[in-house]
Automatic annotation (TrEMBL):
This is Terpene synthase, N-terminal domain. GO terms for biological process: gibberellin biosynthetic process. It comes from Dillenia turbinata. InterPro entries: Isoprenoid_synthase_dom_sf, Terpene_synth_N, Terpene_synth_N_sf, Terpene_synthase-like, Terpene_synthase_metal-bd, Terpenoid_cyclase/PrenylTrfase. It comes from the Eukaryota. The lineage of its organism: Eukaryota, Viridiplantae, Streptophyta, Embryophyta, Tracheophyta.
Amino acid sequence: WTIRLTNPSCMQRVDVTKERIKKMFDKVELSVSSYDTAWVAMVPSPSSSHAPLFPGCVKWLLDNQHPDGSWSLPCRNSLLTKDALSSTLACILSLKRWDIGEGHVKKGLHFIKSNFASIYDERQYSPIGFDIIFSGMVEYARDMDLVLPLAPKDLDAVLRNRDLEIERCYLSNSKGSKAYLAYLSEGMGKLNDWKSIMAYQRKNGSLFNSPSTTAAALTHLEDCNCLNYLNTLLENFGDGVPIIYPMDAYIRLSMIDNLEKLGIDRHFKNEIKRVLDEIHRQWLQKAEEIVLDLTTCALAFRLLRTHGYDVSSELLIEFVEKAECINSIEGHCRDTTGGVLELFKASQLVICPHEAALEEQNSWSREFLQCKLRNGEIQDSNLTKEVIHALNFPYHASLDRIVNKAYLKDYDGNRVQIAKSSYCCSNISNEDFRNLGVQDFNSCQLLQEHELKQLESWETECRLDKLKFSRRKVAVSQFAASATNSSPERSDVRISWVKHAVLAYMIDDFFDVGSSKEEQENLIDLFDKYASSNFDFPFLTIEWKDLLKSMWVEAEWTRDKIVSTMDEYMSAAIVSIALGPIILPAMYLLGPKLSEEVIRSSEYQELFKLLCICGRLLNDVQSDERETEEGKLSALVLHTIRGGDTITKEDSIKALKDCINENRKKLLRMVLQSEGSVVPRACKDLFWDMSQVLHLVYHKVDGFTSASEMANAISEVLYKPIDLKTILDK
């Protein structure tokens, strides 16, 4: 099954790329924020109010003005002109404050005059708090006798927008609105109550980890802790400071998240474990960098929990409740969609009955994101796509390779994010991530396509394609196996999965439509004779034997029109869903050694039972009409019949979906639980992989009999490579 995928020079380039990415785990690289650097540069020296405390920052401003007169990120996007106006005005004020750089000031003022109309352009990305901060700087310019080249009506409009925004926050009077205004304190000017603002000071001396807010506080209060924070900031970054510090936890978590979404995390297992071990330590210590930021807290919870760390949801819920999540987020900070998206993803990892509060956040965050989409309030097009995908494909119905390909197609190696000003981080967005992701996807797909051809040949050699009663499911099965276990190392797992799935489909069709009662009896007798003389694979033999007997029972019920009890039905149906013969042999090929004790363990049996219950009920709910037409029993039919006149079909559907949800939560809890577990994590993951496949194909309709969407998904995963040139040309 081994094929040559790439030439040596290509592999060498891949290895070099991997090494560069590994080094990114050691150091966080954030772009310089000219906006924040300007505010730090404005801090006066304690010994003289006419001299800057940080002259190096002033020099940075003089050295880094763009030819057009602006200060902003290099190679600025045209939709970030509004952001550039804010940063440029801050830099002008800083230079004017120390009466230096007259030529720079003139060029900056010319840029503002030439581009001021962008303020009214609704297509422009707007920095957080722009209406308040920009207006505050306009007033500051007046106090400094700096004449801005703006018409009186424009100045009045700017100040009016600030007044409206501040009034809205005052009327809200929530903790969130107060924190929001404190975060924007450099733009509030004389309206600030600095004593109240200092209540938000963190252990590191900063206000909100924001250099600009902290610099404004130091200017007014000469607080030694603020000074220590800024000194530490400059020691780490030099004279040009970032927009947020510290940000290491968020950035490293985002690195891991991106590597997983791009499908290349398996190449960096050691680096990822090292980061998550440290994040777990910070989580237990309730470090401010994690617990005081919604995005970081939710992302840490999700990654720690999915990687098997024992983390309680109480810390996340405590943060959300303390922050008055709805009031503090909605309508104040404009970058909160990303945070709520992370909360939505994290809240899908409910595994315990006492995590009802997490489920409540799932409902709220879903509604919040849906509202943002409806109203077109998400500025970032890539974030919009992420939100749509997260809403359409929840965690329990999301297949890795589908996620990987969608994310690779939209991945921006130079992505710019925006808070008070725009910034970028090479640890999160870079060309190496995308290039390795594309190469990895295409090489894995090439191997999987080769496997598919071999499997189709196997099907032909075994003459399974001649069985007219049987559905041909090689491609569907290879899609399911490849979408969840895509690495080259899992080739044997995929092949085993597909072969046993194809045989299971064939047996199912044989009992459904392809045989008489006598032929079914003959098949069972034949298999019994085979089983009695072959002892090499006793557990697998038992799985196939149990499957044949359960299908026989169901066929008898259909022939004799017997209506079984629900217990009788489920006893047979969780076997006839035919997952046992697929899961077990694939599990032996994963790598970890499976002893007889593990297979016989109550943990293994419970994992299998929970998976089969979910699979059977999903099938019965979505394929009800087809099954009814064929005269078959289903859990939906039995539940409705047993309820009598008091139960409608819709009531039964809801009851079965509730049952699916509860069993799925139990399954996820067992998969993620490490303490006391005897089943290796890789094996438990296979149960969850199969559960995700089942939830996806039965997400809306009976995926096994509706071909269009499934055919497209198969094509994307197995046949269509990613064209890097097309991505770069977008």
